[in-house]
Amino acid sequence: MKLLTYRYEGVERVGALRGDEVIDLSLVAASMLELIEGGPELLAEARKVVEVAAGGPALAAVELRAPIPRPRKNIICLGMNYAAHAIESLRAKGLPEKLPQHPVFFSKMPTAVNHPNAPVPLMADVSSQRDWEVELAVIIGKRGRDIPASEAYNYIFGYTILNDVSARDLQSRHHQFFYSKSLDGSAPMGPWIVTADEIPDPHALGIRLRLNGELVQNSVTRDMIFDIPTCIATFSHGITLEPGDIIATGTPAGVGMGMTPQRWLQAGDVMEAEIDGIGVLRNEVVA
Predict the structure, then answer these.
(1) What is the 3-state secondary structure (H, E, C) of the chain?
(2) Is the pTM of this model over 0.90?
(3) To the nearest whole number, what is the mean pLDDT of the chain?
C-alpha cells in the first residue's frame, strides 16, 4: 500500500492511495504514527478498508503532508554511504579519498521535516551554500535493540523519499552535520510511505534527482556502501529503535558541492527527488 498523510476540507488525515483516489483511514488510525504502532493487525484492518471503500477525493484535490509530519525523535541519517558521493565529498574538501570503514551517522531535527510540494526556505542570511541530496528513507515498524542484520527486514514498516537539503558552509564552519542539516524545512519527505511488502528488494531501486528538469543525481540503491540491514544492525547495537523512527540511507553522487564549479541552490529552483517504486517528491526553493 501507499500510505499518506494529507489535508482535505481543513482536516489532516491518514489515508491510502488507490489508483488516483485517496481512501480515508481516519477510522482506523488518527495518525501515521498510530497506524505504524498498530503493527500488522492494524495494517490488515487498513487494507480491508481500502478494499471495500466506495471512493475518496482525487489525489490532485488533497494537500499532501509529510507521511510523518512530526517525528517523535530526530531523523537518523547516513553520511557518505554511496562510494561515488563519498569520493566527491572528500575531493571537494581536499581530503584523502578513502571510503568509510563503518557507517557514518548523524541526525536531523524533527523541525526540519517539510512536505511534498511545499517551499524550501533558502535562508540566504544563514547559509550561501544550500545543497540537495535525494535519499531512500526507511520507516521502522517495531521496537527493537541489538537487531541482527539477518532479522533487520522484519523491523521495517516501509520506505519513503527524503531530500536531505544541506548547508555546506555551516557544515565546514562548525565541523559537524547536525546544525548544517537541521535548518527549518530542510527535510522534505514523501510523497507517501510504500509498505515493505511492495518493495521486496530496497537495493534494486533507481534513485535520482532533477534540478529544474536537469538530471543531476542518477544511481541505484545497490551502490550503498553499507546496506540497510547493516545500518539497522549497527545503529541498534545499544540503541532502541521504535515504531516510526526514520533512517535516511545516504545520497549518491551529483550534489552541488561535488561539481566544478560548485553549484548551490537559488530561489526559484525546483527539486524533483525520485525513487523507483515510490514516486516523486517535488519542492521549490523560495527566498
Answers:
(1) CEEEEEEECCEEEEEEEECCEEEECCCCCCCHHHHHHCHHHHHHHHHHHHHHCCCCCEHHHCEEECCCCCCCCCEEEEECCEHHHHHHHHHHCCCCCCCCCCCEEEEECHHHEECCCCCEECCCCCCCCEECCEEEEEEECCCECCCCHHHHHHHEEEEEEEECCEEHHHHHHHCCCHHHHCCCCCEEEEEEEEEHHHCCCCCCCEEEEEECCEEEEEEEHHHECCCHHHHHHHHCCCCCECCCCEEECCCCCCCHHHCCCCCCCCCCCEEEEEECCCEEEEEEEEC
(2) yes
(3) 97
